[in-house]
Specification:
Shape: globular
Structural class: alpha/beta
Strand order of the largest sheet: 2-1-3-9-5-10-8
Order of helices and strands: EHEHEEHEEEEEHHEEEHH
Radius of gyration: 19 Å
Amino acid sequence: MAAKGWGKICITTRLEKQVEAEFVASWTGLLMQGLRKGDNVRLTRGKVAHVAQNENVRAFLLETDCDTFMSLDSDADFEPGFLEAFRNYEPGHAYDLFQAFHLRRAWPPEAIWLAHNPHLDGALEQQLVLGRGEQDLGLVGTHCALIRREVFMAIYEAHGKPAGIPLNEFEWFTYPRHKEMSDEAQFSHEARALGFRLGGTTEVGVNHITRRSIGWNEYQEYLTQTQARERGAYYHELVSLVAEFTGEPPQAV
């Protein structure tokens, strides 16, 4: 059976106190050229990020009949045709949570690309992205991501309903107490535990606005400057040799 598309999308954003002109231009282009019939738009402002995110999710579930929630931060920079390219990207249809390529809002411009390593008690590992394509991930960054309605409902059924919490009060994005874990990491952890597939692609991306707009090209510049490719190849060869000698799988090494 072929993987299903994303259907009707509810595009959401959380406005920061000050929004850059690049985002205003990108957002306007998306509204004018990127929406399909049945899509919806939701934004919040003046609230802490995870509070605003939960409010957007509740509106998506209770006030729309959309199939997919799109999280798009208000410090993103993208072309007007971005949404059409993202939703039409067929390899992404195999996933339940799927992120567009983006970088941290800092220098050096590390990719938000974290894998789940079962050999390290399920820890998340920052990945060095050297190639193009898709990959299963342990965390989906909500700077720009598509998330199916079923994911939110399953998490609510597992964690909210048994506790007697109404759907209009439940929080999907939370910061666990006494743990070094972000709200999106907690959300991704719960989604993965329920059997949903998380992934990302380098083929469709949005920039992250800092003092400069950074994306794939700047990431390649960073890899060149730091000789990351050479170091990655060296460690890959080293890990392979150790794994061959010990008999352990490379992931464990």
